[in-house]
């Protein structure tokens, strides 16, 4: 590559900026590694294959949702509906399982995708703020869920004979299917974000929407697609959960949207959009899950500590990100 | 090649364009000038598909065209470079150049290696040396502007419209930009060039079209027109009338026998200022000259306490001001009109009245309640005194012209009853008529005993407006011009840092 136009004296600051940039994008990975290593030495039961596999499996449901959220935040938006949509997807899947495996898979994906599509259309065409539109989506999805489950009193069970259970309970090479699904989904997501024109457009919209528009990029279409995919993935996360628990639990997903947003931001995606990585979000989800697991290991600790610690870490990471961003700029 | 015939466009009953004919030919660089509100931006927006004309036609290559969106115009081969760079700062240079048209691998994925290679070739061919993998936002504005041009070149544009591309560039960058523009013209691209810096037009453009009040008043070659003639067309005044007042509206030298009211010494700001000092007396206008990056804005910000200084002192009326504290500077009587009025000053959706009142809210409030009547009286005074053209004090500031917005800001600071007024490029980006008014106003304020520090990139403004000119270079005072040496020639030499003047320079 050609030399830069800057004076040689700025090499050092450039080097610092590069380190700061890596730290900003991969900070969560560093924390994750430290926590995992520390926990492995502290708790005998943490580092076992069974426990690690359990963490990965538990994290996979949120990870699917976080993937969609990553694209939404990257585009400068926010999707508050995912928690409710996640729960709705689970209930629909459990209900559908009574009518066949295909119904269990297709029903939640189609319904949740449709919710995402409508949100995307209103946000893109109507120019309304995503916060409000997806807040409406949150209420709508939660209401729909309560309607079809007699205000949450009916918990649909996946029939014991249904092949649908296999989706989340089965495993390959000793690792549960959900983990494999997450691995594939994030690989595809990474390619889409960094190597497709859709991905570039998402980043451009998040970075400078006016510019993206003036460059003639398909801004509206990209937004619609992004929110639709977020809806589909939230629904899919829910259906995986239903398959795993063999039932459509109606009380799930309350506050999940916030947990997912936290994971994405922990992973280094700028909440203002325009920059970040898909892998970072996965790390963010894993970090939250590891913290939860560690707190469970300390049997005496109230499980609510998990939220307290996660919140603290989130605050520290965001503050660090801000600080690192100023270091980069200097 | 690209022309409009009888284009008319109005917004809510206000005619922005009335039957404008405009024609751009292959390979020419065509200047488009006019005061703010003359219709330049609207014409550009019609050409680029942002607006559609109410009547009249746009023709491209002899055929009538209708652009519904900016993307349509782009596809047809018309690119626009805006005043504020319209690219994505968080993406790399190469990504920005190829957004939407990335080279693909056989699998349909973006071919990053090819993209970077082609981007490097492209910017190289434009004579720009830059790491194409660097995030755009980490680069200077000049380089960003070049990247925007590179993008225009890469889409094989046949028409490139440049809307005030130089307003944030340094002299050297402007030179490179012009080279690139000429290069494009030689390849047969037609360029439309808009700039408030009139001097640039003669350096670059072949022909000029002047708009006034939404109408075309003149089209012709620039060589046949001198600066005065051009201004006369823009203002619609007689040439003799323009000449009488010089090129600016500044009056004669002011009184300055008193003790300095502002004395700054040895201001040090990391990487920016190295021991800058200056003094201003009441009733004096001190010009602060220097190229972009020389530390002009940093100096006034440091005086104002908005930029942390490592060392140095600021005294106002003999009393030392606590460093790095805007409230203390304000209380001591220092006001700063910052360069970027959009980002750092005006609140577009608030009324004229509320914008003016912001700075004095603490003064006119008692127990958290605002004395509305006192504000009304204050605002009325300033509207009259500064001749602010607003329908009423309740009108929203966004609806005012750039010049009047600037006056509203000046009024806001005057409310604080400053002793020292720091003005950072007060006339940038406002039209010729309003410029003259702002200049006359600065003059008037100085006559009334205010000490003024005036930063300007326009040499005329410094030479005619200031009593003394301090020239900065790389964060140090390089020269001070007063008396006989207060001429454009001397200023140019000082700015350019010509060897002869170096010996006597830096004598503060």
TrEMBL record, chain A:
Where does this one sit in the cell? Cell membrane
Task: Return the GO cellular component terms, semicolon-separated.
Answer: plasma membrane
Q: Report the membrane topology from the UniProt record.
A: Multi-pass membrane protein
Indicate whether Isomerase appears among the record's keywords. Answer: no
Q: Record's Pfam families?
A: BPD_transp_2 (PF02653)
A single GO molecular function term of this UniProt record: transmembrane transporter activity
Q: Which UniProt keywords apply?
A: Cell membrane, Membrane, Transmembrane, Transmembrane helix
**Alphabetized InterPro entries for the sequence:** ABC_transp_permease (IPR001851)
Its transmembrane ranges are: 22-43, 55-73, 80-97, 103-124, 131-149, 169-193, 224-244, 264-291, 303-324
PANTHER family documented for this protein: ABC TRANSPORTER PERMEASE PROTEIN YPHD-RELATED-RELATED, INNER MEMBRANE ABC TRANSPORTER PERMEASE PROTEIN YJFF
> What is the name listed in the Swiss-Prot or TrEMBL entry for this protein?
Monosaccharide ABC transporter membrane protein (CUT2 family)
What organism is listed for this UniProt entry? Prauserella shujinwangii
UniProtKB/TrEMBL annotation, chain B:
* Keywords assigned by UniProt, alphabetized: ATP-binding, Cell membrane, Membrane, Nucleotide-binding, Repeat, Translocase, Transport
**Gene Ontology terms, cellular component aspect?**
plasma membrane
Q: Where in the cell is it found?
A: Cell membrane
Q: Which InterPro entries match?
A: AAA+_ATPase (IPR003593), ABC_carbohydrate_import_ATPase (IPR050107), ABC_transporter-like_ATP-bd (IPR003439), ABC_transporter-like_CS (IPR017871), P-loop_NTPase (IPR027417)
The record gives the membrane topology as:
Peripheral membrane protein
Fetch the PROSITE patterns from UniProt.
ABC_TRANSPORTER_1, ABC_TRANSPORTER_2
The Gene Ontology terms for molecular function here are: ATP binding; ATP hydrolysis activity
Q: Which residues form the ABC transporter domain?
A: 2-238, 255-499
Question: Matching Pfam families, A to Z?
Answer: ABC_tran
Q: What is this protein called?
A: Ribose transport system ATP-binding protein
Indicate the transmembrane segments per the record: none
Q: Which PANTHER family match?
A: CARBOHYDRATE TRANSPORT ATP-BINDING PROTEIN MG119-RELATED, GALACTOFURANOSE TRANSPORTER ATP-BINDING PROTEIN YTFR
* Predominant localisation class: membrane
């Amino acid at each position: 590559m050609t030399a830069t136009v800057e004076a040689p004296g700025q090499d050092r600051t450039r080097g610092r900026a590069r380190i700061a940039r890596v730290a900003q994008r991969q900070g969560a990975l560093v924390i994750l590694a430290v926590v995992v290593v520390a926990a492995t030495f502290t708790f005998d039961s943490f580092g076992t294959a069974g426990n690690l596999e359990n963490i990965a499996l538990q994290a996979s449901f949120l990870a699917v949702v976080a993937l969609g959220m990553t694209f939404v935040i990257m585009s400068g938006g926010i999707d508050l509906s995912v928690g409710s949509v996640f729960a709705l997807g689970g209930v629909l899947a459990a209900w559908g399982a009574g009518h066949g495996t295909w119904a269990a898979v297709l029903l939640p994906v189609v319904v949740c995708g449709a919710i995402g599509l409508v949100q995307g259309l209103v946000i893109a065409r109507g120019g309304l703020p995503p916060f409000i539109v997806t807040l409406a989506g949150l209420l709508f999805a939660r209401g729909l869920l309560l309607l079809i489950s007699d205000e949450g009193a009916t918990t649909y069970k996946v029939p014991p004979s249904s092949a649908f259970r296999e989706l989340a309970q089965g495993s390959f090479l000793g690792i549960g299917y959900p983990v494999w699904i997450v691995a594939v989904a994030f690989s595809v997501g990474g390619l889409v974000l960094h190597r497709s024109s859709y991905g570039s457009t998402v980043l451009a919209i998040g970075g400078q929407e006016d510019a993206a528009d003036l460059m003639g990029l398909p801004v509206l279409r990209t937004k619609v697609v992004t929110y639709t995919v977020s809806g589909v993935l939230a629904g899919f996360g829910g259906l995986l959960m239903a398959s795993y628990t063999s039932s459509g639990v109606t009380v799930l997903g309350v506050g999940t949207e916030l947990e997912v947003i936290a994971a994405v931001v922990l992973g280094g995606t700028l909440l203002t959009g325009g920059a970040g990585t898909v892998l970072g979000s996965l790390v963010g989800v894993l970090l939250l899950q590891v913290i939860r697991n560690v707190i469970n290991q300390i049997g005496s600790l109230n499980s609510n500590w998990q939220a307290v610690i996660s919140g603290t870490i989130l605050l520290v990471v965001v503050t660090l990100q801000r600080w690192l961003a100023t270091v980069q700029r200097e | 090649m690209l022309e409009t015939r009888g284009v008319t466009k109005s917004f809510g009953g206000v005619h922005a364009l009335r039957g404008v004919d405009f024609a751009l030919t292959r390979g020419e660089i065509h200047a488009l000038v006019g005061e703010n509100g003359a219709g330049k931006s609207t014409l550009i927006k019609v050409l680029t598909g942002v607006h559609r004309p109410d009547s009249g036609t746009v023709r491209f290559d002899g055929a009538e065209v209708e652009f519904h969106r900016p993307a349509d115009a782009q596809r047809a081969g018309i690119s626009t470079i805006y005043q504020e760079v319209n690219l994505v700062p968080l993406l790399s240079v190469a990504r920005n150049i190829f957004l939407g048209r990335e080279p693909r691998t056989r699998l349909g994925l973006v071919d990053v290696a090819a993209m970077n290679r082609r981007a490097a070739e492209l910017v190289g061919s434009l004579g720009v040396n830059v790491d194409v993998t660097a995030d755009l936002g980490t680069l200077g504005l000049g380089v960003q502007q070049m990247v925007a041009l590179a993008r225009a070149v890469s889409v094989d544009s046949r028409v490139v419209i440049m809307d005030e591309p130089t307003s944030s560039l340094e002299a050297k960058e402007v030179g490179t930009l012009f080279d690139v523009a000429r290069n494009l013209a030689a390849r047969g691209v037609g360029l439309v060039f808009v700039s408030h810096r009139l001097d640039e037009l003669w350096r670059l453009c072949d022909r000029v079209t002047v708009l006034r009040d939404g109408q075309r008043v003149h089209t012709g070659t620039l060589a046949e027109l001198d600066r005065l003639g051009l201004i006369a067309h823009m203002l619609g005044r007689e040439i003799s009338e323009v000449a009488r007042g010089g090129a600016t509206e500044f009056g004669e030298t002011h009184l300055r026998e008193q003790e300095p009211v502002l004395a700054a010494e040895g201001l040090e700001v990391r990487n920016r200022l190295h021991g800058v000092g200056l003094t201003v007396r009441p009733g004096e206008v001190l010009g602060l000259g220097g190229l972009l990056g020389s530390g002009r804005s940093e100096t006034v910000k440091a005086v104002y306490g908005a930029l942390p200084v490592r060392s140095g002192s600021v005294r106002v009326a003999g009393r030392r001001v606590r460093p790095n504290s805007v409230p203390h500077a304000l209380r001591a009587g220092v006001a700063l009109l910052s360069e970027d009025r959009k980002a750092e000053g005006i609140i577009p959706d608030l009324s004229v009245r509320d914008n003016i009142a912001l700075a004095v809210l603490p003064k006119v409030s008692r127990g958290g309640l605002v004395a509305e009547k006192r504000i009304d009286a204050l605002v009325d005074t300033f509207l009259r005194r500064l001749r602010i053209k607003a329908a009423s004090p309740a009108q929203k500031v966004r609806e005012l012209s750039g010049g009047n917005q600037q006056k509203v800001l000046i009024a806001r600071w005057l409310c604080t009853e400053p002793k020292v007024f720091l003005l950072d490029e007060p006339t940038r980006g406002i039209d010729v008529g309003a410029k003259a008014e702002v200049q006359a106003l600065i003059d008037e304020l100085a006559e009334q005993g205010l000490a003024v520090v005036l930063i300007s990139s326009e040499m005329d403004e410094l030479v005619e407006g200031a009593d003394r000119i301090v020239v900065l270079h790389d964060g140090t005072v390089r020269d001070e011009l007063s008396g006989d040496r207060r001429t454009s020639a001397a200023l140019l030499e000082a700015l350019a840092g010509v060897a002869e003047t170096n010996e006597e320079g830096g004598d503060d």
